[in-house]
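protien #1 (seq + structre)
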Amino acid sequence: MRVATWNMQQGYNAPPLKRCWTWLADTVAPDIAVLTEARVPAGGPPAGWDAVWRPEGIGPTRRWGTVITGRGVELTAVDHVTIGRFRRRTVEVTSRYPGAAVVADVNVDGEWWATVVGLYGLNVDLKGRKCGHGRHTTSALLRDLSPLFESDRRDRIIVAGDFNLHPRDMPPVVDRLGLFDLTEITADTRPPLEHCTGCTARRPNECGHLWSHRNNPSPNASRQQIDFILATNDLAHDLDSLTGGIRDFPGAWNVSDHAPVVAQFNSQGVGLTPQGTEHAETPPS
């Protein structure tokens, strides 16, 4: 299963929306993609794609939002989950920034594979004031979605998107929810990113981050990774590789000021129920 995240915002480039979706299909070629600052064509997702998103976007002045899309899979929006081991109860899955966080079950041939959270960290503080980073909102959105991590889905969750924060600013709630940063756990498989901004590496040669965002078209633009894929333990063990950034997608700056990040998972887990037994014909309740 090939899972990608990509911020579709054109920034200083402005290709047509159709071209962006074509580039996603032909160049990134994901089975599942989390698209941030994204829009779906007026007639809906292109032929062959399924998608979950809020058509109204993040708000009246921001008609874009987070989109979970895929080919060859069935996506079902997750609005409620059941939590509790003995006294089970149904809890709504919601967030304080509708349109910025989207949750969907991924089904392959009628069987639940995983639950994907698409997340965009807005550049505001919790009072709505601009602050230039997504540290406040990324943390808040994950806390809002914590019931998901108490539910039957908790063992197979992916969180992906543009968090608008640097690697060293990943919020503590990520660890508390049992999520692994797939960039960090695969760092030794990639050459160092020179002049990495906000790096977590103790030594430059230990950095394995991906240049996923160019903040301006200057040759001196900061080398930033602000787009991430996180996963719970079972899926982290299923990971085959993590690629992305401008090194793996050298044409990315022609369609966006972001380059995709892509996680390749093996097929282990297809047909599992949340408890690890076999053959769940439907997503968990």
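ok now protien #2
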Amino acid sequence: MTPLLEIKNLVKKYKDVVAVDNISFAIHQGTCFGLLGPNGAGKTTTIEVIEDVVRPTSGEIFYRGQPRRDSFSDEVGIQFQSTALLSMLTVRETLETFQSLYRKTAAIDDLVQMCQLAEFQNQYNDKISGGQQQRFLLALALINQPELLFLDEPSTGLDPQARRNLWHLVQQIKKEGKTIILTTHYMEEAQYLCDEIAIMDYGKIIAHGSPAELIGIHSPEMTVILPQKQFVLDPDQLSMPVRTVKDTIEVKTNDVNACLNTLMSHGVNLSDLTIRSPNLETVFLNLTGRQLRD
């Protein structure tokens, strides 16, 4: 099956800095593809090159099996991290203005309903909240009925309720068969929304797969957590890594059943036990490090 979008040997250099270092990947129709990485990893440059905002140094970009054409910008939707809009226009007037720029467009009333804009559609652009603005920018990205949608950190700065609401909208868009490229610093968001993920660092793709595949390969261990007062064993009696964290004991294991059987056989009280499963954030930190980057 021909991918909707295919990137081959993409390179972008700025003088002596290689921002994107010979990366390749393909995205199939109807998937949500997450491009993740720490600050400076090259993901924003990659997205900007694919969007045709920045010219690549070398490499090829194919859309529907053909080299990307000038019409590409008319066929995709982009929600940037931030967009400057005219403050003298209302939300609905702005939607109408953007609609006039395209031949193929969605009905404004449909977008207003889907993105829950009705309550503030007659307010000025600079008079709406952060959560309302993100839903509004999503509606603008959908105005030309794109098959491919770029969402660049769409939930940054949103409170948990507004973020979950945005996730629901993205899920609705996926159900319509649209293809999404998502960048985000929220690993929970990527794990919840993405079918496939590429993790970038220093301009290269260092891991690629579904969230479950990445967790299984790069962070398979689970953590069994017990109150320290209930752990009456010498850690040397166990053949598993054990560490003390504040007033708890953490046991790392690839086989939870075997771990629990071992603890019970040594008379450990499991009544206040908790089990922490690995997640995408664990994978991300294991691969890219825990040191803060500017």
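The longest helix spans residues 160-175.
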